[in-house]
Design goal:
Elements lengths: L11 H37 L8 H14 L6 H12 L34 H7 L1 H5 L7 H11 L3
Helix pairs in contact: 1-2, 1-3, 2-6
Length: 156
């Protein structure tokens, strides 16, 4: 037996830890970027719905479904994810700084609003209204997409 490739000295453990930490940062950054795109779409859809000023869980679910189709095709995606990663994991940033100026609506009505589809005829609203039909045609190409699809389907 002359193949000792299965043996490790322990020195690679440090590199493995660095690689694992970098992988975690990459995954978090990608998920945040995905959610950012979905939340922007959900808020636009909610604003186009007559009389609505609130983003509902169904708005978010539909927007996440749409984001599954759009995410990989976004311009400058790699650069934006890298910039977001730097912003998220910058050791010198003050994370709570932006929260100080955020208004808090203490009088908000916690009564759950009922979802209705938007009657707007813009491209976003038409797509969001038909997203369940499109969802059936989604082609999954990676294990991450399988997980996202399962979680999105279990929402609401």
């Amino acid at each position: 037996m002359s193949d000792f490739s299965f043996m490790r000295s322990g020195f690679d453990n440090i590199q493995d830890a660095v690689d694992d930490e970098e992988m975690k940062k990459n995954v978090v950054s990608i998920i945040v970027k995905f959610a950012e795109g979905a939340l922007k779409t959900a808020s636009k859809y909610a604003l186009h719905r007559e009389g609505s000023t609130v983003v509902l869980p169904e708005d978010i679910k539909r927007a996440m479904m749409l984001e599954m189709f759009l995410f990989k095709h976004r311009d400058n995606l790699l650069e934006e994810v890298e910039a977001l990663k730097e912003e998220l994991f910058d050791e010198n940033s003050d994370d709570d700084e932006y929260l100080e100026d955020m208004p808090i609506d203490e009088d908000s009505d916690d009564e759950e609003m009922e979802f209705t589809e938007s009657k707007c005829t813009c491209a976003i609203c038409r797509t969001m209204n038909n997203i369940y039909n499109m969802w059936e045609t989604l082609e999954i190409t990676s294990p991450y997409e399988i997980l996202l699809k399962q979680h999105i389907e279990n929402m609401c």
